[in-house]
Amino acid sequence: MINFNVPPFTGKEFDYMKQAVENEKICGDGPFTKKCSEKIEALTGTAKCLLTTSCTHATELAALLAKIGPGDEVILPSYTFVSTADAFVLRGAAAVFVDIRPDTMNIDEKLIEDAITERTKVIAPVHYAGVGCEMDAIMDIAKRHHLMVVEDAAQGIMASYKGKPLGTFGEFGCFSFHETKNLSMGEGGAILIRDEQYIEDAEIYREKGTDRSKYFRGQVDKYRWQEYGSSYLPSDMNAAYLYAQLELAEEITQARMDRWNQYLELLTPLAEAGKIELPYIPEYCTHNAHMFYLKTKDMEERSRLIDFLKSKEILSVFHYVPLHSAPAGLKYGRFHGEDRYTTKESERLLRLPLFYKLTADQTEYIAGQVKAFYC
What distance in Å separates the CA atoms of residue 60 and residue 62, rounded to the nearest whole number? Predict the structure, then answer.
């Protein structure tokens, strides 16, 4: 059976985790946490990176820093994981969903401005599949309307828009290091902070509302409860696991890109024959081969293709059910404008296996079975 995903593993993870134990510092903000943060800062150029226990918690931290509260509104796509909305809904905000672009599956930047009200505080673009949203337009809208931007770059590590890393445009960017992501620590994430003015507050919120980070740097003689907060620190053993992959981030990305390009080459004839649609990458984006998807004619055809591939020992999956149609979406948000593409495109999209150690032979076999289904 070819699994849909196999968590990345480089071979050094256990060695580094053993070092973490030997350091006698396995809780949060140990030596490997520091190494990971510094590595991500070097890769992205952000002012500060703080590791978190998940991308969900990174986004919650961003919501705290943005001072989101009851009555506020946040504009985001409905085609995203629940965490994008959860972080703001937990603070009492309403989720205002707008339609996506059918080419990239990203939020349609042309629809954002019409959804802005006097209650709007944040625009939360989601870089689907590691393909950047139209950030020039989004940042322009945010600037003109005095809004903050929180980038959900859960899938965006090692990807860029016009040469600038995803997650570094808005005030805050959020990465995921879940086991399904290009780089993983099992469960984990990171918040990227663009402006230094937010760093101290971020450290306080992340450390249960205390100035413990300043204490460990010798800046205060004891740490005190300064604000509300929570515990968003991952174990240093998790960070040790991640650091082994950050060291090989370029190699891992290239390995995935090789398989992504192989899929594209092998399946292009089906697309040219009008049987399927393949991913679109704008020329201004450098993606990270986070996923390879295709679009079928409709949901019924997609279900048949998933079943067919499973019969050939290939696990393929569909992706998000649009949030605005879910019970919580109806309760905590609203869809602004017409749902022209969100639901229709979500019902056609199918993801093929793609992971670090996927082989060329496996990729050829998978593409061959997709062709067999249609031919």
Answer: 5
Could you tell me the domains of the chain?
A: 13-246 (3.40.640.10), 249-374 (3.90.1150.10)
**135: exposed, middle or buried (Cβ count in 10 Å: 0-12, 13-18, 19+):** buried
**What number is the average pLDDT over the span 73-91?**
98
The residue type found at 271 is: A
- What confidence tier does 257 reach under pLDDT thresholds 50, 70, 90? very high
Instruction: For residue 240, give the nearest of 39, 45, 61 by alpha carbon.
Output: 39
Asked whether 168 and 44 are in contact (CB, 8 A), the reply is yes
Compute the distance between CA of residue 316 and CA of residue 294 in angstroms, rounded to an integer. Answer: 11
* Those residues with Cβ within 8 angstroms of residue 249's Cβ, 6 or more apart along the chain or in another chain: 43, 157, 158, 183
Q: What is the pLDDT of residue 216?
A: 81
DSSP string for 32-96: HHHHHHHHHHHHH--SEEEEES-HHHHHHHHHHHTT--TT-EEEEESSS-HHHHHHHHTTTPEEE
Contacts of 334 (CB under 8 A, 6+ apart): 94, 95, 96, 97, 324
Place of tokens 């991640």: 242
Which pair of structure tokens corresponds to residue 96?
A: 């205002």
Q: Hey, which bits of 119-198 come out as E strands?
A: 120-123, 148-152, 160-161, 164-165, 172-176, 189-193
Determine the pLDDT at residue 24. 87
When the pLDDT of each residue in the chain is averaged and rounded to a whole number, the result is: 97
DSSP 3-state of 225: strand
* Distance in angstroms (rounded) separating the CA atoms of residues 369 and 372: 5
Work out the pLDDT band at 212, boundaries 50, 70, 90.
confident
Task: Using the predicted structure, report yes or no on whether residue 215 has a pLDDT greater than 80.
Answer: no
